[in-house]
Amino acid sequence: MTEQPVSRKVDPITFELFKNAIFSIADxxxxxxxxxxYSGVLKDNMDFSTGFADADGKLVAQGLTLPGHLGSVPxxxxxxxxxxxxxxxxxxxxxxxxxxxxxxxxPDIFIFKPLFHRGERLAFACTVCHHTDVGxxxxxxxxxxxxxxxxxxxxxxxxxxxRAGVLDATIMTFIxxxxxxxxxxxxxxxxxxxxxxxxxxxxxxLVARHGADETRALMRETVDYxxxxxxxxxxxxxxxxxxxxxxxxxxGVDYGKPIRLFVTIRKTGDHMVVDWTGTxxxxxxxxxxxxxFTKAASYTGVRSVLPPGIPNNEGVFRxxxxxxxxxxxxxxxxxxxxxxxxxxxxxxxxxxxxALAMMLPDRVKAAGDGGNTGISIGGYDDARKPFIYVxxxxxxxxxxxxxxxxxxNSHMFANMASHSIEVTEAEHPISLLAYExxxxxxxxxxxxxxxxxxxxxxxxxxxGTLQVRSDRRDHxxxxxxxxxxxxxxxxxxxxxxxxxxxxxxxxxxxxxxDVLRHVLAGAGGWGDPLERDPTAxxxxxxxxxxxxxxxxxxxxxxxxxxxxxVDTAATAAARAALxxxxxxxxxxVVQWHDPVIAARAAE
Length: 603
Prior knowledge:
Layout: H1 12-36, H2 40-43, E1 48-54, E2 59-62, H3 72-84, E3 93-96, E4 108-117, E5 120-130, E6 159-163, E7 166-167, H4 169-178, H5 182-210, H6 212-235, E8 240-248, E9 259-268, E10 271-275, H7 291-303, H8 314-318, E11 320-323, H9 342-359, E12 373-380, E13 386-393, H10 421-427, E14 430-437, E15 453-459, E16 463-469, E17 479-480, E18 490-493, E19 500-502, E20 505-511, E21 515-519, H11 534-542, H12 548-555, E22 559-560, E23 565-566, H13 568-582, E24 590-591, H14 595-602
Parallel strand pairs: 10-11
Antiparallel strand pairs: 1-2, 1-5, 3-4, 3-6, 4-5, 6-7, 8-9, 9-10, 12-13, 12-16, 14-15, 15-21, 16-20, 17-24, 18-19, 18-21, 22-23
Helix pairs in contact: 1-5, 5-6, 7-9
């Protein structure tokens, strides 16, 4: 049957159906990975993304998965097209993870499958998954104290995993010999391939319905539509320039040496520039970003103030320009270590909130817990069988201008879920002894920050290696418009015994019975704490998220814990005394923790 030429104007009903269909395919790919994957970091943390690109590698649709991957597929696809643009055949499948050739960090392995119709390439199915291990000096391949990329694991240049439908056994052998848990890694790679197969099948049905020409036109329109929507939304925001500065405590190698994050947002009409010039040079430790990950943090921040319903694809990125000089912690160059770059990405997202809060004070939240914290525990049992547990955890949102921060909810940059404790204990030599909210650590404010939680991990094997990547010790999560900063994070070894304090980032040997306690940082508050509704304070005290003493000290609210009521007269007197003690003054945009930064802000 001869295909009918597509009209110059896309029918709006046809377009809406097509757009929903192609995003549904990306979501179905994500569900396929969740259903078929082997590792907890994928099925529970959901540290993966799926997408759909056109024949030229331009992202058309991205599934509802990880915002941290918003900039990843276009960068990786550009690398594939650069290397193989004239050598892409039906049945080919591409693999890559090289951070300096389109990737992000070594655990994130991309699988791309070109999709053909009657011998013509029309699209690509795209997946990227964080794998449990890709080799390197530390089990889990994401230690923050590695100092160059060569220590972090197997670096895969853009390659053909399948050539015309035939698996390249050499590549699989290299992977098999360089990872600690090849069964799990290969299982997760098969989950990615299964997702691509689902995409291929469902895309073929779309093409059969619309024809190749109309399918191409509808994919172009999906991207153009996202650009129009983004530009229209940006045009409604105020024009101007806003800058914000925040600090990472250290890189886990040069302890106590803070790392500057500095962002400037320039918005004119329907275009926005996010400029990270002024951010610290790249560091020795493994927290250096690739540019694609810095873009993802920038896009996530901007998307948080745009209306819902704008598709995630290349059209959005056309309207938002991201600048970050090479050789900085936001755009590392060889031989920068980057396995733990997740920390920097999360902190850049919060830094974006700081700048956006000046632009849109009634729409932007304070800093969250600074996550996510990365914890990996690996080793060998008595039979020398390897085990690796990888966990990423975060759970306290900054206060919002209209409501408290969320408690126990993943950071906006992550969209992750917690590991099942029962599955963790069944699959790994680990017991979770505690998983609970910690009182008196949320930043105070008219709206308080999210309440953090702690976890106690007990190690049950003879010996293993524990790696922790955390932050927000010296530079706590900032509050906004008079809100207080959240309490710092903490790590303790054997809290019911020696109770030894551990640094924010470390790698160490643990033995049977050792317990790690990790406490997340509390999130920042928003607004003057003395304006908080006393009944909201009472509720937090009753729920054991706030002690009566802290309620009085931070909020001037006196709680009768016998009758469970607010003592109105005592509260009025306590608040008057606090106001007199503090003195009246204009509250700053940001409640700084660092005195040096506070001095700069005062200037």
